[in-house]
Design a protein that fits this description.
single chain, alpha/beta, Rossmann fold, 2 domains, globular, disordered C terminus
């Protein structure tokens, strides 16, 4: 049975290790390792004010997003799902980045049923609006909020910055292969029973 999947982009479809961090290290003369990033916001790790960092990020967002590598295994799994389910990509990116985002999907050979850039981390309204059946995320509080307010399973991709405890219904996975295995099991469990006589 076809399901409607909600999927975050940054740190979920893109590789959290090598998307923004190399740009930060280069721009600010730092050597932050991925394992050291134990909170979602990067501001505490840089040697400039929040205002300066925000301005730098806004200016460099298009370049960062255009050059973000795919997370390991994402392409294989998403290409399999594109024929089996509806894929709705919901991101906190601002809407003016839609053309860059669509081009990135095309360049990486990924298809989509819908891309929505909401300019905010609060994705609950989008999840409800599109009647999504499951969500894929890397930001801890997003995952918990979506699960609790929408009562759907949320797959949380394990990173150093999302290590707080999670409730039942938020499922921590290490990679896209584990996500695929969990989804396959979930699909079998949620398949309606067919009675034969």
């Amino acid at each position: 049975m076809k399901k409607r999947f909600g999927i975050d982009i940054d740190g979920t479809v893109t590789c959290p290790k090598s998307s923004i961090l190399p740009f930060i290290n280069k721009a600010f003369g730092l050597n932050i390792s991925y394992e050291d990033v134990t909170q979602y916001e990067y501001t505490p790790y840089v040697n400039v004010s929040e205002k300066v960092f925000a301005e730098w990020f806004t200016e460099n967002e298009p370049t960062i997003y255009a050059n973000s590598p795919l997370a390991t295994g994402a392409e294989h799994v998403l290409k399999k799902w594109e024929n089996e389910h509806e894929l709705f990509f919901i991101s906190a990116r601002s809407s003016h980045l839609l053309d860059i985002t669509i081009k990135w999907f095309i360049d990486n050979g990924l298809t989509f049923d819908h891309i929505e850039l909401i300019g905010s981390h609060d994705k609950v309204a989008s999840v409800k609006k599109h009647s999504l059946d499951i969500f894929f995320e890397d930001k801890h509080d997003n995952a918990v909020m979506i699960h609790e307010e929408c009562q759907i399973p949320v797959i949380l991709f394990d990173t150093p910055y999302n290590q707080d405890p999670i409730p039942n219904g938020v499922i921590r996975v290490n990679n896209w292969s584990e996500a695929k295995r969990w989804v396959e099991h979930w699909m079998k469990e949620s398949r309606p029973l067919v009675q034969t006589f």
